[in-house]
């Protein structure tokens, strides 16, 4: 009886063995397929993020950048035109990256967003001077409506995407949409200036006040660099500095915008500059701005100031920044005479 049972069991095993082998092979195939799918997904994600990141990344510090002809109607302001054109370039020719959500390749970037936000911060600061000083006959006169609108729009946060969940779950205006509206307002002002229905008052005291306010803003950048240097060198040298490059490129963007604005303010205030014999001083100041803007380290390092291995790019940037402040003060002192 036992032998019959064993023979039946053996026959059953022989009958089911192909089925078991089949399912084992299927499981192995499924496992290999799953691994291959996972590998393909990882590869596609790497191509998407890394490839997209390198494709989008652009830090344009061209010192010869000039506004297109449509931004510069006759008898309008050169400084206003370059401000509008610079914002337009960053949001239309390139991509505004500071507000990209996590699933976009540019969300991985940090230097380009810092550079772009530095540009916007400088232009918003200059727009304050346009609204409060240059774009009105006297402080008691009414502020220009287009300049007021541009100021509000350019002070908008650069990190707002379609949704801003910190304030609402409803869709909201994106940063680039607000900045585009700010560009349009600056262009309307310049067009009205060309037509004689807006004010651009090129008085020496207006230029003095504008330079003083820009100097203060640049000084705040110097203080930011100093605080970071003090803080970073108080910690262990083995702790990586992930904030230093963000500060470097934010300051670079801010000074790049100021360089272009000051370059074109020279055309707007050519009479004052010629009367006070400021041509040489102005050229030296612009050269210092150009030098600091053109600093292009492959990797921003924050080594010890007296170290021999790694340079300290923030300290170098801060040196030229302070030199620019000194030259601004010299021009201001001449304007007071």
Topology (elements, then pairings):
Layout lengths: L1 H55 L21 H16 L17 H24 L10 H10 L20 H21 L8 H29 L11 H25 L1 H6 L3 H15 L19 H24 L1
Helix pairs in contact: 2-3, 2-5, 2-7, 3-4, 3-6, 3-7, 4-5, 6-7, 6-10, 7-9, 7-10, 9-10
Order of helices and strands: HHHHHHHHHH
Beta-strand residue fraction: under 5%
Main β-sheet, in a few words?
none
Oligomer: single chain
**With helices defined by DSSP (H or I, 4 residues minimum), what is the helix count?**
10
Number of distinct beta strands: 0
Helix content: 55-70%
Structural class: mainly alpha
Uncertain stretches of 5 or more adjacent residues = none
Key words describing this protein structure:
337 residues; 67% helix; elongated
Textual characterization of the structure:
The structure is a single chain. This protein is mainly α and 337 residues long. It has helices spanning 2-56, 78-93, 111-134, 145-154, 175-195, 204-232, 244-268, 270-275, 279-293, 313-336. The radius of gyration is 30 Å and the shape is elongated.
């Amino acid at each position: 009886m036992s032998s019959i049972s064993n023979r039946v069991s053996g026959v059953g095993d022989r009958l089911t063995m192909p089925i078991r082998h089949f399912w084992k092979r299927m499981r192995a195939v499924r496992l290999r397929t799953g691994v291959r799918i996972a590998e393909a997904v990882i590869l596609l994600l790497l191509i998407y993020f890394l490839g997209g990141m390198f494709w989008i990344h652009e830090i344009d510090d061209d010192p010869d950048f000039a506004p297109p002809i449509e931004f510069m109607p006759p008898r309008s302001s050169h400084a206003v035109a370059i401000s509008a054109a610079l914002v337009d370039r960053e949001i239309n020719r390139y991509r505004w990256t500071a507000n990209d959500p996590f699933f976009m390749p540019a969300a991985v970037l940090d230097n380009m967003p810092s550079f772009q936000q530095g540009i916007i911060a400088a232009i918003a600061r200059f727009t304050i001077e346009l609204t409060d000083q240059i774009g009105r006959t006297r402080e008691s006169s009414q502020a220009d409506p287009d300049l007021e609108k541009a100021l509000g729009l350019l002070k908008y946060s650069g990190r707002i995407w379609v949704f801003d969940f910190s304030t609402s779950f409803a869709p909201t205006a994106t940063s680039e949409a607000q900045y585009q509206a700010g560009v349009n307002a600056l262009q309307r002002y310049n067009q009205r200036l060309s037509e004689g229905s807006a004010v651009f008052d090129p008085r020496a005291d207006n230029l003095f006040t504008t330079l003083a306010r820009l100097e203060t803003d640049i000084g705040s950048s110097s203080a930011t660099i100093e605080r970071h240097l003090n803080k970073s060198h108080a910690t262990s040298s083995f702790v990586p500095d992930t904030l230093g490059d963000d500060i470097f490129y934010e300051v670079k963007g801010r000074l790049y915008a100021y360089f272009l604005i000051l370059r074109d303010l020279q055309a707007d205030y050519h009479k004052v500059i010629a009367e006070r014999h400021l041509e040489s001083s102005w050229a030296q100041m612009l050269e210092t701005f150009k030098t600091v803007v053109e600093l292009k380290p492959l990797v921003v390092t924050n080594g010890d100031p007296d170290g021999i291995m790694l340079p300290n790019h923030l300290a170098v940037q801060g040196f030229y920044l302070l030199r620019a402040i000194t030259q601004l003060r010299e021009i201001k002192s001449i304007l007071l005479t």
